[in-house]
Amino acid sequence: MMEKKRTDCPALPPGWRKEEVIRKSGLSAGKSDVYYYSPSGKKFRSKPQLSRYLGNTMDLGCFDFRTGKMMPGKLQKNKQRLRHDPLSLAKLFWERRLKGLRPSDVTEEVLRTLDLPNGLQSVVPDSSDDTLLSAIASALHMSSAPITGQASVAAEKNPAIWLNTSQPFCKAFTITDEHIREQELNVHQARRSLEEALMADGLARAAENTQALLEGNTT
């Protein structure tokens, strides 16, 4: 059972509405989910989705998705932290240290580079696909928070000020059900190929052992 509340959102352009869905039962009772609806009725579940839809028409850098309000004080505090915190400043372009590094197997043979989806684009100048892939992999490994990319479109214009250092330095993206199904199919195919390779290797070893036994019996 859920309770839904819809209200106008003055922080967004006219016609936008905020919906808060409060859960009334179950283990998550009392918690709520927030959604936004455009004047045409399109539903948005996250700030990155909202940012991509509005594009350059509105800067959502200080927009708080949960409350539906602009929080300029919080943004100013983040700017000051970046200016005075050497660690945060050092992290801004840490991806550059990964530039030129390539993964290799145990024989030191360089592995084939993965092709990134078109939706994954870096907001940092002079950044390759390899660097971006390493940054996303590191974020997934080091952080327990959702990986969404840079929600603020202002990060592309002035990354030194607007970048969110807790996220990889790529444009905001969303993983759809179609993406998940494609990856599940890739994993299934990879497992099947591995199974076939192991079976072929086992048959080859069995044939070698049989041949060795036959040669031993004939001598």
Automatic annotation (TrEMBL):
Per the database record, which ranges form the MBD domain? 2-70
GO terms for cellular component: chromatin; histone deacetylase complex
Question: Which keywords has UniProt assigned to this entry?
Answer: Chromosome, DNA-binding, Nucleus, Phosphoprotein, Transcription, Transcription regulation
Q: Which GO terms describe its biological process?
A: DNA methylation-dependent constitutive heterochromatin formation; negative regulation of transcription by RNA polymerase II
Signal sequence residues = none
Q: Which residues cross the membrane?
A: none
Gene Ontology molecular function terms on file: methyl-CpG binding
The cellular location(s) given in this protein's UniProt record come to: Chromosome; Nucleus
Q: Does the keyword Secreted apply?
A: no
Q: Which InterPro entries match?
A: DNA-bd_dom_sf (IPR016177), MeCpG-bd_2/3_C_dom (IPR025884), Methyl_CpG_DNA-bd (IPR001739)
Name this polypeptide is given: Methyl-CpG-binding domain protein 2 isoform X2
